[in-house]
Structure formats: C-alpha cells, structure tokens
Amino acid sequence: MTTIDAPRTPARPARKGGVNWEKWGWIYMRASGLVLIILIFGHLLINVVLGQGVKQIDFAFIGGKYATPFWQVWDLLMLWLALIHGGNGMRTLVNDYAYNRVVNRILKWAILAAVVVLVVLGTLVIFTFDPCPAGAPADLVASFCPVK
Question: Which residues form the signal peptide (predicted)?
Fold first, then answer.
C-alpha cells in the first residue's frame, strides 16, 4: 500500500538550529526593495525630471555629481542593493527550479560570482571616476575642471 504525504509536507525536513538564511533572505528582499524604491525614484527625479531632462546627462553632468560624496554614496547604495537584491532573487529561482543538486550549486556559484564581479567593478567606477581627465577637450569636461 502506498501512503501519500500530508499536504504541505516539506520535501526536505527543516534543519534544527543555526541561522535561518531563507528567513533573512526574505527580510532582506522586502527591506532592500523599499530602500531601492526611494533610491531609484530619487535618481530618476534628479537625473531626468528636474532640469533639462535626459539631454542634460553627459560626461560633465556625471563628473559634477561624482565630485560630491553624497552622490557617490547614493549611487553606491543603489548599485549594491540592486545587485544583491537581484542575485538573491535569482538564487530563489534556482532553488525553486533547479532540482539537480550539481546544477543547483553551479548556478548559485555563477550568480554569486557575477554579483561579486559587478559590485567590485561598479564600486571601482564610482570611487575612481575622474571628472577632470588629462587631455580631454574643454567642452566635454565639467565646468569646475581647470583648463589644461
């Protein structure tokens, strides 16, 4: 005789003790989503809605923004939260649909590697951006740059 598991019986029994990473991932997704809404709409408001719209965005505009630590931190928070939020969402999809244990691990490591590489590269761009590059034409650099 075959017995059928009761509804909502977990496929894998829950571990006893330790950190509940799924719970913290769920909390992170909600908290980072709320903060991202504020960061993204603030970003769009400043960069697109106020001023001259999209046509104002050029190298000098970005150079002027990144000359102040406020915008560096704003964009850094947006970058980190968005990438980690997206990586965690992709991890959840892999857990839901990749049943093969080896494929599951490979995909999760690939997501982690992509998130880490993009976070490192984005952070480097934000903090090493030079708004006054040597040898650049005067009409392409920010107005605060000294004429060379």
Answer: none
* Helix, strand, coil percentages, rounded to 5, for the chain: 65, 0, 35
Q: How far apart are CA 92 and CA 22, in angstroms?
A: 9
Matching residue, tokens 């190298």: 59
CB-CB contact of 131 with 64 (8 Å)? yes
Query: If we measure between CA atoms, which residue out of 22, 18, 24 comes closest to residue 96?
Result: 22
The tally of CA atoms less than 13 A away on the side-chain side of residue 59 is: 13
Q: Is the pTM of this model over 0.90?
A: no
CATH annotation of 26-128: 1.20.1300.10
Q: Which of the four pLDDT bands, split at 50, 70 and 90, describes residue 129?
A: confident
* 17 Ramachandran zone, left/alpha/beta (phi>0; psi -120 to 50): left
* CA dist., res. 145 & res. 79, Å (int): 27
Selection from 50, 48, 63, 56 nearest residue 143 by Cα: 63
Every domain of the chain and the residues it spans: 26-128
